[in-house]
Amino acid sequence: MRLGSCVAVAAALAVIPFATTLQSQAGWAKPAFAGQTNAPAPSKPSAPFAVQTITNRLSGPWSVAFLPDGNFLVTEANGTMRVVRPDGVVSSPLAGVPGVKSVAAQGLHDLLLDPDFARNRLLYFTYFAPPKGEAPAVWPIEFFYERVWTKPLAERRTMQIGMETVARARLSDDQKSLENVETLTEGAERRIVLARDGTLLITGADRFRFYDSDLDGVEHDFTDNPDIRRNFSGRVLRVNRDGSIPKDNPWLSRATVSANTYAHGLRDPEGAALNPTTGELWVIDHGPQGGDEINIVRAGHDYGWPDVSYGRQYDARQLDGRKNVPVGNGKSSMPGVDEPVYYWDPDIGPSGMMFYTGNMFPEWKGHLFVGAMPSQYLSHMVVNGERIVSEEKLLTDLKQRIRDVRQGPDGSIYVLAGNNLLRLTPKR
Fold this sequence. Notes:
globular, mainly beta
């Protein structure tokens, strides 16, 4: 490839992982059932609410957790973890955080407090670890994408790029450092959710570098070798809180599938939450050009990537100038693949997900909230069973990328928007 082409592609890629083309994908695919996309606005808009800025001095915040003393623990994608006080004071970076490689969409991501945190001070977090001997750093995006996906598979498999990692640590009593950091499992580094049975469910993005893929899927499917996708497509991992493998994981009897695999066939699941009614894991999958989805994750199930998708490959990654190149076999549905319960047309670039269960907003109880990054709003969705029956856009006036949404201990709602930590409460 000529140098000029490399520069042009690298420039285009610089925005793609964090922004999705907002054109309509009408005609690319038809929904499998009524209401699978473009849900109507609610008949009655939500009541006005107040927005309080806790701080605007974060740097690429990715996740927030609520400490028992009222402080917030926040991760930043560049590899730092900080404590934020309710009065807006932001701490220096915590010591003891393992080295993080921040490149493209990889970095320091989710954070989950142990259910017995008040006693044991344990927490879980996900991050991209640099390879042995490489110092933690923030790398240009091309080092993970353009300099990898253009290489033959045999060469990729020898490249030491880094590893998706899930870790456990103890937060020091003075909240200034992490102690006793240990790796629990590898292969995923997006969201962590505590299942009702006490296991950890961890979502991870497609690891295109480990199989014959060109990052946004290839123009064929993998039906002849399904274990490739079971190991390397975006997955949900399931481990016990000490990192051991649960004895009922779905692929334990198949030696060619990683023991921690719980479900597969996702692309980039940047949001996850338990449905409070069913206890099932719902995830949002950040698709390519189109194909942003909501899926209900079940043990051993397949969600299609990169065989099928409601989206298309990114135009900027087609070095021959083609546009609207299909993913996989070009279909949006396939036998043996679970349908998304919802997809966006046009896409929104989703990240962060929450079912509201509090009492501060009683009219929102049981509703679903999803952050939209390039679309810059908070999506409020009414759920009826496994269907989205209405969708409302909130916080559009902020004109900020919504990365995460969480319910606070008192029932208020916290949002990471741009570099801000915001608190939503009813307007009195």
